Structures are given as C-alpha cells and as structure tokens.
Amino acid sequence: MTRVSILSDFEDRIGDALEGMFAGVFRSPVQPVEIARALAKAMDDGRTIGVGKVYAPLGYTVALSPEDDENFGAFTSTLSGELATYLADHAREHGYHLTAAPHVAFVVHDDLRLGRFRVSAELAAPEYVAPEPVTPEAAPATAPGIATVSVGDAGHDVALRGASVIVGRLATSGIRLADSNVSREHAAFVREGDGWAIEDLASTNGTLLNGNPVSKAHLADGDVVEIGLTRLTYHGPGR
Question: Quick one: how far is CA 1 from the chain centroid?
Fold first, then answer.
C-alpha cells in the first residue's frame, strides 16, 4: 500500500464519519488530512535506529486552539482512532517497528489561533488504552470471578468488567486495536452468566474463534479470538 493510498483510505474513512454520525457538526478549519500528514512527518522525524530495526514513536499529541477544540467536539474520539490506524499503516509501509499500537491524544493550547495546530511525538509507549489492566495489587491470584483477555503482544492482560467490552479502532473502545483490518466497533466480549461470549458486531472482515468465523459464541478458558491481525486469548474467571 503506497503513502498516497493509505492517505486516501484515511480520507475516505473520515469522510464517511463526517457524512454519518458527525454530519453538520464538524466546523473546524483544521482539516484531518493535514493533521495526518503532520503526524506522519513527526513519526519520520522521531524514528530511532536500534539493533536491526528502526523504531517509530508511539505517543502523539495534537494541540488545537480553544476555538478549534470546541469545533471538533466529540469528533476527536473518532479522529484519534483513525489517526492511530493511519500511523500504524504508515509505519508498516516504511518498515518501522512499533512495540505497541500508536496513540493520538488531543490537547488545547491557548497560544494557538483558530485554524492553527501543532503536533509532537514521543518514542516511549503510552499507557495501553484498555479497561483496568490486571495487576497483582488490583487482582491477586486468589481473587475469584475475574475473566481476562491477553491482547497480542501488549504485555499485560485486560480485565473484563461490566456487561460488555467493545473491541475496535475507536479510541473509546474498551480494547482499541490500531489496525485498518479492524472495524470501528468490530466485536464485543459480552457477559453471559458467570462467563463471557464473543460477539461480532457486523464487522467488515469478521471475527475468528479458534480459527473459525463466528457471529456469537460462549468462550472457554484458553479460547483464541482473532480480530484483524491481533490474537486475543481468553482466560476464564477463577482460572
């Protein structure tokens, strides 16, 4: 996939969002594609050379003026996820190594005028966007009733809490995957009695359970859910 095509794909996805749930809401003169270009340059400028690999920054910040921040409104959540997907594609195209999914955050800088923005990049991995990661303090080994999901190479498990946990590209997803193969709201871990099920949310590319396409199925300890390029391993409560 060329740089032009991944940028065009990003523009198409943003266009769909603006024509859909955000139609008539987005009013900022700051255009998402200009932010995407600036973030890609920040990734290129911030890359570092390691042993046999070129590492790309993982944490990105977009500073907006107070007026633009107000104009963006709730659209920033959708845009954050789409920009993270674009950066993951940009890294893959250029052969950069990512130790975790890119993360894009929006902040307000009072010194910026309407229509102006600035971006910055940090090599260190941001905190993984997920609901309450399981730690020895938060969930001792003797604590019963907590189901978890190991997310690819993220480095820790995610605790499943509440009625459901959404998996998708949106920044508001319980488990966010910066992968263009993943739909905005791709699938959900859904509580069923004392256990959990996986349910595909009419995604474009589908959801696999232990290698087989699935619409909804109850999960057993050790089951592997594949969403896009990521494998999510389910660990039942009380394991």
Answer: 20
Q: In the chain, which ranges are continuous DSSP H helix?
A: 3-19, 32-46, 66-72, 75-94
SS3 state at 5? helix
Which residues, 6+ apart, have CB-to-CB distance to 114 below 8 Å?
29, 65, 67, 68
CA-to-CA separations, 138 to 109, 135, 159, in angstroms, rounded: 35, 5, 10
> So what's the pLDDT on residue 141?
41
pLDDT value, residue 156: 60
Question: Sheet harboring 164-168: ordered strands across?
Answer: 175-176, 164-168, 187-192, 195-200, 216-218
Nearest to 85 by CA among 182, 201, 155: 182
Q: Is 39 exposed, middle or buried (0-12, 13-18, 19+ CB in 10 A)?
A: buried
Question: Which residues of the chain fall below pLDDT 70?
Answer: 1-4, 16-27, 124-144, 153-156, 238-239
The pair of structure tokens assigned to 210 is 């232990």
Beta bridge partners, 188, equal 166, 199
Report pLDDT for 59: 86
User: Rounded to 5 degrees, what are φ and ψ at 25?
Assistant: -100, -40
The pLDDT, as a whole number, for residue 216 is 96
CA distance 24 to 239: 49
What is this structure's pTM? 0.51
